[in-house]
Design goal:
heterodimer, A: 475 residues, two-stranded antiparallel ribbon, 20 helices, B: Helix Hairpins, 0% strand
Chain lengths: 475, 101
């Protein structure tokens, strides 16, 4: 039966239930046990997924589940990203008394389980269930700071938009099911190929709804309204989580829905994605300039990055898909480093949320300012950082399918984006600091953030390793 | 015997009503939650109609999952509404304007 192919998911599920019970019955100081068990679970599940990497493609459980390199690779990354997120969450929730509950980690684990199900889904049913299991704990985590008005407002906005997105996606799914009578992705792809022009309109209608639903989840324009509000309103440690790992899962979902299920409708979804890419890059980069809150600025920059990533998917080629994967991986580590810097600079009673709060960071801590500089340069796409090669790979793929004008437009938007990334650097290095308070010394956070930012530099200097990896995933 | 198209039109109308409700609603958070439920029910109508038409029970199975998830979703939605009520003593949509977006 191949139950061992499900091992990472089963392990996370079992451990999430065990940790729930441990947290309930075992009184503990500072949630140390819950925290370490959660982190251990993530590490072990990453190792299991690593062990399953490069095994032959397995499609099982009546076609509901697939284990290929894409799912194993993304599972490893999701576990790793969540691990880093929780390192930054620990002190954050401890120093804000009302958030320090074990549920934080347990909800996180269940969300991770949802992401894992989503990346290894092979039928519309599993995709839907994975998506909901991923999103529902996230809504609750955003509202975790119960006394904070902004957090609950962000949560209801996220919830309504997320529910609307799943509704749209489901409506599209029901139309596709109506035409093909199947839920298995490959069966659907086959039956669309065979009965080419039959019920063509309904298929395209379903496709449009599916694209809208996936873009809502990815946070691309014109379905981006929730992104800035949620990123700003949520507690920063939750913002890291919302902005990083779910994007990987949503990327896998989009890829499976468009490239695996509806390759026959390529000529229909390509123009849709072109519009989305242009709007995301434009709105993201232009509106980011106007922001004074750094969380909102990073949110808009995230929207523009989703636009660049979409460029890779819309090519419809394997090179494009692997470029998009490379881009989303680079983006996730950039946003992770960016938001975790905000967590590190915040303390009880003071949230580092505005651009002003970074003023003169170089005087207060040259090393952290340098790390933030690396992140900003990488997001702007300056060589020799990984963000540059991610953009380069995507542009290459777009030019290879003769959409040169689109690549030129994307480069223009990237140059516009340079302005607000460099403004952050200017504020850190050339403005006089407003406060001289020492930045709290938390070794684990400082180590992780240094590793993360230096990895951006390292993979920028030696991009071939990650590029080959992202390429091999699709072979 | 009611034709498939009638069911599809019904579900499309329900879907449009719920989207309109979500977009135009300026009053109450609870009615937003009701619109979300209606959205999922419109989808369920579609699934059931197709499953009956195609003689294929996959659609009916899907409906059970959608119903279950909808229940969980409503629970979380109401919980968030309660936190909002505790913080601002109102659940009017217009008052949710702390975050400009």
């Amino acid at each position: 039966m191949g139950f061992y192919q499900l091992l990472p998911e089963l392990f996370v599920l079992t451990m999430a239930c065990v940790i729930l019970l441990v947290d309930l019955y075992y009184p503990q100081k500072k949630l140390l046990l819950t925290y370490s068990l959660t982190q251990m679970t993530l590490v072990i599940s990453a190792f299991i997924s690593f062990w399953l990497l490069n095994t032959p493609v397995f499609i099982g459980f009546t076609g509901n589940f697939v284990r290929d390199n894409l799912s194993s690779f993304l599972e490893i990354l999701i576990a790793l990203v969540t691990f880093i997120t929780f390192v930054f969450s620990r002190d954050y929730i401890l120093s804000r008394g009302n958030m320090a509950r074990g549920e934080y980690y347990i909800l996180g684990l269940f969300s991770v389980l949802g992401m894992m199900v989503l990346v290894s889904a092979h039928s519309l049913l599993t995709i839907y269930l994975g998506l909901e299991l991923m999103s529902l704990p996230l809504y609750a985590m955003v509202a975790m700071k119960r006394e904070d008005r902004n957090a609950s407002e962000a949560a209801i906005k996220y919830f309504v938009m997320g529910a609307l997105a799943s509704g749209m996606l489901l409506y599209g799914v029901s139309l596709i099911y109506g035409v093909t009578g199947a839920l298995d992705l490959h069966v659907i792809a086959q039956s669309i190929l065979i009965s080419a022009n039959q019920s063509y309109t309904v298929l395209v209608l379903g496709l449009i709804f599916i694209v809208i639903g996936s873009l809502f989840k990815l946070g691309g324009a014109p379905f981006h309204m929730w992104v800035p509000d949620v990123y700003q309103g949520a507690p920063t440690s939750v913002t890291i989580f919302v902005s990083a790992a779910p994007k990987l899962a949503a990327f896998a979902m989009t890829l499976r829905l468009l490239a695996e299920m509806l390759p026959a409708l390529y000529t229909q979804w390509q123009p849709l994605l072109i519009v989305v890419a242009i709007l995301s890059m434009g709105i993201g980069n232009l509106l980011a300039i106007a922001q004074s809150s750094i969380k909102r600025m990073l949110a808009y920059s995230g929207i523009s990055h989703i636009g660049y990533m979409t460029l890779g998917i819309l090519t419809g080629t394997l090179a494009g898909y692997s470029a998009a994967l490379f881009y989303i991986v680079a983006y996730v580590f950039m946003t992770l480093a960016g938001f975790s810097m905000l967590v590190l600079l915040s303390r009880q009673g003071f949230e580092c949320e505005n651009l002003e709060d970074l003023r003169g960071l170089n005087n207060r801590s040259p090393w952290l300012a340098f790390m933030m500089l690396l992140v900003m340069f990488s997001m702007a796409g300056l060589p020799p950082l990984v963000g540059f090669f991610a953009k380069l790979a995507v542009f290459e793929a777009v030019i290879a399918v003769h959409l040169v004008w689109l690549a030129v437009l994307a480069i223009v938007f990237a140059i516009i984006g340079l302005y607000y990334y460099l403004r952050v650097v200017k504020i850190m290095y050339f403005d006089a600091p407003t406060s001289h308070e020492l930045i709290s010394w938390q070794l684990d956070m400082r180590l992780v953030i240094s590793f993360n930012s230096l990895a951006l530099l390292l993979f920028g200097i030696f991009p071939s390793a990650l590029l080959t990896l992202c390429h091999n995933v699709f072979l | 015997m009611i034709a498939l198209s009638n069911y599809l039109i019904l579900s499309a109308v329900l879907f449009a009503i719920s989207i309109a409700g979500l977009v135009l609603n300026r009053k109450n958070l609870i009615s937003i939650l009701m619109c979300i439920e209606l959205l999922l029910l419109a989808v369920n109508t579609n699934f059931i109609a197709f499953a009956d038409y195609l003689n294929n029970n996959l659609g009916e199975v899907f409906v059970f999952f959608v119903l279950t998830v909808a229940a969980a979703e409503a629970a979380i939605g109401l919980a968030i509404v309660i936190t909002i009520y505790r913080n601002s003593h109102t659940i009017t949509t217009e008052d949710l304007d702390n975050l400009k977006g």
